[in-house]
Amino acid sequence: MSTSARKRLMRDFKRLMQDPPAGISGAPQDNNILLWNAVIFGPDDTPWDGGTFKLTLQFTEEYPNKPPTVQFVSRMFHPNIYADGSICLDILQNQWSPIYDVAAILTSIQSLLCDPNPNSPANSEAARMFSENKREYNRKVREVVEQSWTAD
């Protein structure tokens, strides 16, 4: 069963293996090219530094014309990440374009960690804290980072 989505995902995977962007990794699950596991490492010199955050990416046969469903498996505290781990990010919704590949998706999510959009909150507590009490916000982020070391 070799659809254009599967061919594209194989190409994305090859590119990710040959030229991996800093701080991200991802691969399809053994028997399902449409379901990927990924890890994003918290960027250096940020409150997220040292964190290892697991995600899943669920693609459909309509990829790359439709974006994947991306969710954090790791517990997160972030203005643009819902309690269930789903992510409020424009390129995963209304700004999607087929030029984005898996590496671009993961890189965008990684940069969202440090550069949240508190005006489009998925987690209103995190958004409020990010805007009003950065120190407390950073402390909560550090807790999530430490949990990421021990969580499955």
Task: Provide tags for this entry.
152 residues; Ubiquitin Conjugating Enzyme; four-stranded antiparallel β-sheet; 4 helices
In terms of topology, how is this protein built?
Layout: H1 4-18, E1 24-29, E2 32-41, E3 52-58, E4 69-72, H2 102-114, H3 124-132, H4 134-150
Antiparallel strand pairs: 1-2, 2-3, 3-4
Helix pairs in contact: 3-4
Structural description of this entry:
This protein has a four-stranded antiparallel beta sheet with strand order 1-2-3-4. The model has no long low-confidence stretch (mean pLDDT 95). It has helices at residues 4-18, 102-114, 124-132, 134-150, and strands at residues 24-29, 32-41, 52-58, 69-72. The N and C termini lie far apart (32 Å). It is 36% helix and 18% strand. It has a single domain, classed as Ubiquitin Conjugating Enzyme. It is of the alpha+beta class.
DSSP helix fraction: 25-40%
Structural class: alpha+beta
List segments where confidence is low: pLDDT < 50 over at least 5 consecutive residues.
Answer: none
CATH topology assignment: Ubiquitin Conjugating Enzyme
CATH class annotation = Alpha Beta
What's the main sheet like? 4 strands, antiparallel
Side by side, the strands of the main sheet go 1-2-3-4
The CA-CA distance between the termini, in Å, is: 32 Å
Q: Number of domains in the coordinates?
A: 1
> How many β strands by DSSP?
4
What form results from the Cα inertia axes?
Answer: globular
Question: What integer value in Å does the Rg equal?
Answer: 16 Å
Label the CATH architecture.
Answer: Roll
Percent of residues in beta strands? 15-25%
Please identify which CATH superfamily we are dealing with: Ubiquitin Conjugating Enzyme
Order of helices and strands: HEEEEHHH
Overall mean pLDDT: 95
Number of helical elements: 4
